Structures are given as C-alpha cells and as structure tokens.
Amino acid sequence: MRLGTTLPQFGDAADEVARIGEFAARAEEAGAASLWVGDRLLAAVDPRIGYGGTDTIPVEFRRALDPFVLLTLAATATSRATLGTSVLVGPLYPPAVLARSLTTIGALAPGRLLAGLGIGWSPEEYAGAGLGFDARGARLDELLDGLDTLWSATPAPLTGPRFPLPAVHVETPRPRPSVYLSGWSEGALRRVGRRADGWLPVGRLPSADLGGQASALLKFRANIDAAAAEAGRDPAQVGTALRVNVAAGLDAAEIADGVRRLVDATGFTDVFVDPMYAAPGIDASLDLLADLVSRTA
C-alpha cells in the first residue's frame, strides 16, 4: 500500500497556511507516499446543488486555500512524495492557464505531479468563474485536448469552440504531469478509459457495508477497463488512486482497519486519506498520519 494524505486546506486550516511547507515535509518524513489538494472556489449560502448528495455545503468549504499555492509550498518542501489534485474543477480553467500553472509546479517537483481533474458539482462556482453550468463534460474534453496540444513537442492550433488558439509556444513539462480523472457516470468512466492516465474514485468511512463499496468500485473500474481496451489501450496502464473520506469520531485503529479492508477488497494500492473532519488542523493530522502509516505498513 502507498498511503497518502490531503494537505490542510479548508476551514480553520486556513489559519495555518504558513505551516503548509512544514506539514508537507513532516508528512513525507512520516511516510506519506502522496500529498493532495482539492479545489473549492466558493461556498454558496443557498446552493442549487449541495455537497455529496445533500442540500447543504460543509461549513469547512467557506474558507478554502488556493490549490496551486499549496502545491507549490509542498513541492519546495518535499523530494519524494507524489503531489496530486483531487480534484481540480477542470472546466473552470482555460487550457493555456492550467498548462502554465501545472508546468511551473511540475518543474519544482519533476516527475511527481499528478493532475486530477473533474467537472465539479457547484453551479455557483461556475458562475463565479463567469461560466455556464451546462456542457461541462464537453468543456472538460476540450480542456484535455488543449492540454495534449500545448504539452506536445510541436506547436499546433487549438481548434475547439471554447478555447480557439493559433499555434503557440508553451513551456513543456519534462515529463508532462500524469492526468487522472474523477467521475462515476458511464460517460465519465469511458472518458477515463479512453484517454486518462488514471482514475480517482472515492471511498467513505465509516461504512456499514464496506464490501458493497468495494464491489461498486470494482464494477466502475471494469467499465474503465472495457473502454480502455476498446480504445486500443492496455487497461493495466490506467492507474487508480483511491481517496478515502473519513468522518469525525473515528480513531486511527478504525480508519486503518477500514482502509486496509478497502485495499484488500479492491486491489487499489494507491490510497490517500482525507482527515479534514477526523483530525482537523496540522498537528492532529500529522499525529493521525503517523499512526496510520505504522498500522498499515
């Protein structure tokens, strides 16, 4: 198992932004194989769509640190851990803007950046970026096309309807970041299989039915594998990094047991825990991480 954790980013963690570099360095020293950030632009007071199937948004999302800044701090403080995004709301970013940001971070952490992208769920975040909420999947596809072009060795035009550009010069990361995609819908899973370097599924603890969670994850992964094979790709070359969201009230033993059971049942050995609710704050998160590493080694 390669166990990672999220960087403190939301809620009261915003008060500790000056310690993010310290957190990243100490987390890597404690054995974290990966460090992750999310992407929240704003939290609507009366959301049209709530978080995670609810009609509300967690209070922690009212304060959110910038993911690119946090990755930069982590990149300069670490030397081994994978640095990932789970996830950036891809359609909020024009390809050229996102390519520049990721290229810069990739240069600070050569070969360690994993760019995880999704389509998001908040209409208000799209409005905050001056965008409509419809056609998000098509917008993500055009973003991926644009990144492929901008990160290629030969300049070429971007011909899509949303981000047209003549051929331009852009610094190309060496190597380019891996691009993982999130999603559960049939279209999203087929997109992963056709064109992504990997998939970013989510598990939850506690769970009254971890076996059911694992079965669902494997079913979704089978759809990805089928789409990859249809596209002439080797499904084994499409990775998986499993995020585990942990509710408040669980201790390290319970979390470690749940993570181990999910990993054993799915075979997804790249896994990272989000302790935002279970261990808020830098010191509590580091203590939990050290305990989890020792219990899952």
TrEMBL record:
Tell me where in this chain the Luciferase-like domain is found. Answer: 13-268
Q: List residues traversing the bilayer.
A: none
- A Pfam family that this protein carries is Bac_luciferase
Q: What PANTHER family does this protein map onto?
A: CONSERVED HYPOTHETICAL ALANINE AND PROLINE-RICH PROTEIN, PTHR43244
Protein's recorded name: LLM class flavin-dependent oxidoreductase
What organism is recorded for this protein?
Actinomycetospora rhizophila
